[in-house]
Design goal:
Elements lengths: L1 H5 L10 E9 L4 E8 L5 E6 L43 E5 L3 H11 L4 E5 L6 E3 L8 H9 L3 H15 L10 H18 L5 H4 L14 E3 L2 H4 L5 E4 L2 E5 L4 E4 L5
Parallel strand pairs: 4-5, 5-8, 6-7
Antiparallel strand pairs: 1-2, 2-3, 9-10
Length: about 250
């Protein structure tokens, strides 16, 4: 917003507009962009020498593609398009996937649902959520009253987080990767039920640390001990009007 105001970009911006298509016109060496006003529905076109797509790689969620999902009578939606009108209390819930979003969703659903069946599609490195070293009342006082203290905090956080990139280095980061893997394995093996260990704990050969987003957690792994939560790597074969039919095809 500061940049837009400083360089007077607002008069040139078109808000409430959906881009429908962008086609490269070879004969004219420019882009032809078709866009629609969300309010009026009016469709227009614009040309440009340069086109920057800033929508984000994960802005369009992958819709359910399991056979028969169209006929399911209950609520069915992606976590990125959460239906706030759905009440999961007393319901049987199936969660497809076990990534970062599912790690946040499952513990909340499990508190009120009759049952939660989660289908594992990949392994991840789970680790305890780091404690905030700046949570004490004394630190809060310093943040409010000492000029520059917040900037110091940010600098410390930046250094600590940047050090974690060492895990992505090839040979130099092997020790850092192993330390994180050991910490993750200890966390999962001591907190999660033993019957799920083979579904939750990867090896470095299966998945090297830093090759996929790490999952920091303080609720998901513990909630797997709840009686109404079931974790399985049997995959969704098809969906009927009122059930998800699984097929026993172990991934690991």
């Amino acid at each position: 917003q500061d940049v837009a105001r400083t360089y007077k970009l607002y008069p040139m911006a078109r808000f409430g507009t959906q881009v429908k298509e962008a086609e490269w016109q070879e004969q004219h060496s420019h882009w032809k962009v078709t866009y629609r006003s969300i309010a009026s529905g009016q469709v227009r076109t614009a040309t440009a020498r340069v086109l920057v797509n800033g929508s984000g790689a994960l802005s369009v969620p992958r819709e359910c593609d399991v056979d028969g999902h169209e006929q399911f009578k209950g609520p069915l939606f992606h976590s990125a398009k959460w239906d706030t009108s759905v009440d999961t209390r007393g319901k049987n819930v199936v969660v497809l996937g076990n990534g970062c979003s599912a790690t946040q969703i499952v513990p909340s659903i499990a508190k009120q649902a009759k049952s939660v069946t989660q289908i594992v599609r990949a392994k991840h490195w789970y680790a305890p959520t780091p404690e905030d070293p700046f949570r004490s009342p004394a630190v809060r006082w310093l943040e409010r009253n000492v000029p520059g203290f917040i900037q110091l905090e940010r600098a410390i956080f930046t250094v600590v987080l940047d050090i974690h990139f060492l895990q992505a280095w090839n040979r130099e980061g092997s020790a850092a990767r192993q330390r994180f893997a050991d910490n993750s394995t200890l966390y999962v093996s001591t907190v999660a039920p033993e019957r799920y260990h083979h579904l939750l704990i990867p090896t470095q050969d299966e998945l090297k640390v830093a090759c996929k987003r790490r999952v920091f957690d303080d609720a998901y792994i513990p909630c797997l001990n709840m009686d109404n939560v079931d974790l399985t790597n049997d995959q969704a074969h098809r969906i009927t009007q009122d059930e998800v039919v699984l097929t026993a095809l172990p991934l690991y």
